[in-house]
Amino acid sequence: MPPRRFNQPSPLPHHRKRPHTPPQPEAAPLPYDSLTVSVTMLGAGQEVGRSCCVIQHRGRTIVCDAGVDPGAHGLPSLPFVDELDWSTVDVLLITHAHLDHAGGVAYIMEKTNFRDGPGKVYMTHATKGIYRYIMQDFIRVRSRSNATDDALFSESDVLSSLSAIQTVDYHQSIHLPGGIHFTPYHAGHILGASMFMIEIAGLKILYTGDVSREIDRHLVPAEIPLERPDVMIGESTFGTMALENRQDKESRFLNEVQKIVRRGGRCLLPVFVAGSAVELLLILDEYWSKNPDLHSIPIYYGSHLARQCMEVYKQYIHSMNPSIRSTFSKHENPFQFKHISHLRDVARWKDDGPCVMLASPGLMHAGPSRQLLEKWAPESKNGLILTGYSTTGSMARHITDKTGLEDIEGLNGQKIPLRMSIETVSFAQHVDGTQNTEFIEQIGAAHVVLVHGERHQMANLRNQLEKNAKHNERDVKIHSPRNTEKLDIVLRTEHMAQAIGRLASRPPSTSQLVSGLLLSKDFSYTLLDPSDLKDFTGLETSEIKQRQNVRLNVGWDLVKWHLEGMFGGVEEGADKNGTPIIRVMSSVDLKLVTERELTLEWIAGTSSDMIADAALSLILGIEESRSSVKRKTLTLFAFPFTDHNPTVPPGGETKSSNTVDIDRVLPFLTAHFGSAELVYISPPSTSPIKPEDEDDNGDLNEDKAEIEAERSEEDPVAKIDESGDDVKVEVDESRMEAILEGDDGRNSTNGEEQSGKVGGDQEEGVKRPTILVKVDAHEASIDIWTMTTTCASSTSFATRVHGVLAMAIATTTPLNVAFESATGLVSGQSGTPEEGKERNGLESFVRPEGSSTNEGLADEKGDLDM
Ligand SMILES: [Zn+2]
């Protein structure tokens, strides 16, 4: 049989089941390190072209730009799209309608799983307007070129993606689900170009795209946003290169154009359709107007696309610079050129003399500009002026890189002599080194990620920025990640909560603590007064008022005294009907409803529930002591284990002790067996019976039925009264345990002294408190000192009695013994007859000899304080 074990009695056996508050939902753990923002370039990392930047923070994914490399073909022209699960993208932001920033949008939207996710695509209105034409042209040029690769997407893909693209205006804040905000700012560069200030969970990231800061003829230069971003992801196309100033390059450009046409040559200007082309047209048209001798020389814009884009430009005058707007306000359309003609198809155009021809694409990899280059290259009177940025590997770059180049390769593979004059005047609408350094420093982000630049240009700019930062003693980190290299930026973030409503109407003084209800939504925090909750959130609040009635059998003052002992102090008052109230810890009210009824009232809450529980168990504990007093037959036995006490059990060790309340154990045994009484007898000579049977509990009911209830005539308590000994039994807990486990404890350290005639040798003549349990002919005796049970006639009966005794002890161990003993203190101080009774009862504890009343009280007070 496994040893039988009783659990320690519950500290609150009368614990009521209280209606508990519903469990609070646990705050969801943040999916990612809240202090880290990741930037991964899928394109334009240490290169120019196919821009695609992935920003990840706190489980949100934002992609800026989805370009292609205009000089490449097929899949290699795309960014590393396979590196991202596009269904996880929350938003795709397109800065402007250049192919290297927007050319991959249709592919992403139609050929990846982007549409399976929540992601939306945003661009400005003008960008969307140009995007449509530029993509149609892109597909047309690709299909006409000799490239044999598969088309990445079709025109229908472009149209399908177009309908799903959302538009946004400059300075318009868009709030997306999941706590993402973004705002577009002017970026210069081309019509519609924007930088995006993105905010995720309070973290601000500025993605610039391509920017120009120059005041030109039609665009608003890139803005410095008022808010300082934590991270800036900016272009570095020209590195630290300084470009010519505006005036110088315009006059050099116009001189070169004139020189070519005046010598009877054709001037070829390969241009990017949207962007520098418009600026060049504005410059040329203005110059031609001022120089009538040039009117005989036609200027052509050799592209159907150009005509379409010009229509877009005419629509978006309002988003251009003040000069254009003022011209427009004079009822003149600045894009209604007087000296420029559009050519629908260069192939069918009659080439019969000197002219200025703007033709796309700027890189001359295919299309009209390439056709004209191949046609005009062999003649030395013709001239080529390169005005845009030439990406690596493109025909434009090939020509500019190699001085003294004698021939070029035609699209059909033939060699074409290159005799035309070649000049470069950059109208590439990008910031140069000086402008960019100043721009980046004005933005003032602590982390700058350089993108969209060739490696050495990027390195130069990085060095320059780091040098400046060191010089100005500013802590700025410059990063230049390669494609697909994940850059983790660790930031120190501050959590800010905005106070609203009533809280905001009372501005706090310095260092004053403000408390309220903290609401979290999409990573933003709001602090408000709970009473404002409904107004600001539509949520209702309710209070649960708890009420518990308790029968009261002790005096109100005694209740108060006990509560003061436990809680350190209480507030007293009365309700409007005059009912006395004691308020505990400012949260639980005890009302004296009638003389014998107490009501506890409190507003449900974690702490108030606990306080109410404590107060309730305390009150019930007072009742316990009261009930024992009422009987006037106090049978709380105490055996303080001191050498001077004649009732000390021999060998008793008191390292820890439980109190067995005989007064409560007796009725329990009586109820069970019909007869149980306390007597003082000489030690038993029979061997004690140890409990062996685990099934005692199971037999309980049967036993009850079998046993005829018969109360003993004799009142065991009376005897004790006569003896005048009011004692309390203290049981060594370890021995109790040992007994319950089947070892009566006599084999412990002092085993010999306890064995057999326990105490007989040492304590001769001392009668031992014993409980006698009688059922029919059987009589079992329980030795209180040793807690052993014996029965001369039936071992099984002894076993049964012992089992029930253990249960009785477990169930009846009283509450708050400390408080019971402490009641003596108050009764000694007050003089009501009611309390006098209390005192009579409670003072009747046997104190260790030699301890004065005062010392005893002090000890008990000490207990109280625990
Ligand atoms: Zn661009």
UniProtKB/TrEMBL annotation:
- Region annotated Disordered sits at 1-30, 681-700, 707-767, 825-866
Q: For the Beta-Casp domain, which residue ranges apply?
A: 277-399
Residue ranges of every copy of the Metallo-beta-lactamase domain listed in the record = 49-265
Q: Which domain of life is it from?
A: Eukaryota
The Pre-mRNA 3'-end-processing endonuclease polyadenylation factor C-term domain sits at: 510-815
Where does the protein end up? Nucleus
User: What's this protein's name?
Assistant: Metallo-hydrolase oxidoreductase
Family stated for the protein in its record: Belongs to the metallo-beta-lactamase superfamily. RNA-metabolizing metallo-beta-lactamase-like family. CPSF2/YSH1 subfamily.
InterPro entries under this entry? Beta_Casp, CPSF73-100_C, MBL, Metallo-B-lactamas, RibonucZ/Hydroxyglut_hydro, RMMBL
UniProt keywords (A-Z) are: Endonuclease, Hydrolase, mRNA processing, Nuclease, Nucleus
